[in-house]
Input
Amino acid sequence: MIRIPVYQPDLSGNERRYVLECLESTWVSSKGHFIQDFEATFAKFVGAPHASSACNGTVALHLALLALGIGPGDEVLVPSFTYVASVNAIQYVGATPVFCDSLPDTWQLDPADVERRITSRTRAIMAVHLYGGACDMPRYVELCERHSLKLVEDCAEAIGTRLNDRHVGTFGDIATFSFFGNKTITTGEGGMVVCNDHELNARVRHLRGQGLAENREYWHDIIGYNYRMTNICAAMGLAQLERIDDILLRKSNLASAYHSLLKGCNVSLQEATKGEISSHWMVTVLAPDKNQRDRVRAALREHGIETRPAFHPVHTMPMYFTEAQLPVAQDLGARGINLPSWHNLPMREVENICKVIIDICTPTAPADSMS
Ligand SMILES: *Cc1c(COP(=O)(O)O)cnc(C)c1O
Output
């Protein structure tokens, strides 16, 4: 029986009141003031001029790549160590994902490996900010300028993450966020596309709303999609955003507790990129090896504590399988464990969780020799 889930949303603010307002006003579909309010408040929170909501984070990525005009024949550099949606979006537009390795300390996309894989067909880099940390964006901005590439940021796991005093998602050409139930703030299902450029944002909205022409009713001038967010979801999102500073503060305290309790034990935690303030979406540890990782997960399960394995590298999954060796991605995938990280997790549970980990991952003193 799972007593402590890996994640649990907190809807105890104005969520109920705003959602009820949708029901009572009958503005339940993808029109209504909460959509504009959520978009405007989110844009301000991130510090970006434009934010367009979408019905989840995966379609937000799809919209971002479509709006940039990426398609068949184009290669997009992407980490293999990520959630599968980052890669699927590349495939949806008919482009080719090119898998890159990750860094062993921050676990983010490895800029040197990315640079090695640039070809004449490369059109974009997709930097995925994992587990609340940040990729080294100044490196990617420079790389993209030098090679005339588009820079996409997948910020699904990085709501509230800052780098050099800027929110992630403001470094590249376009960025996306997710509000799935286990993300830092949630709308049930939901996503956001953020960018600096007015025209790019207009393309995102055009594609999102069935390709509806601007000045002619029920006239569609491109093949678009119905990727809109509902007013009900936006109502939840707005209420969540009102409390985001408190959520981020509690998550930061949890992460500090995990870090200090696990100090000295034989696991490693995610290190920060230079200039990063992590939002600590999901506290993750690497066990010394896969066997100990699986033992830790089993022991925690016995205590009623749910964990998740770190991402299986996408290039090892059947639909993207390649023989390529990406040693860091494979190592992280074999040894990583996501620990319960929701902001109201009681501190004594953090202590219990760490005790179980320490029991398994602290090498016992070498047994006395046979003599
Ligand atoms: C959650 C997530 C997504 C997709 O978000 P959904 O809202 O679940 O579609 C994309 N990329 C990464 C890295 C994610 O963690």
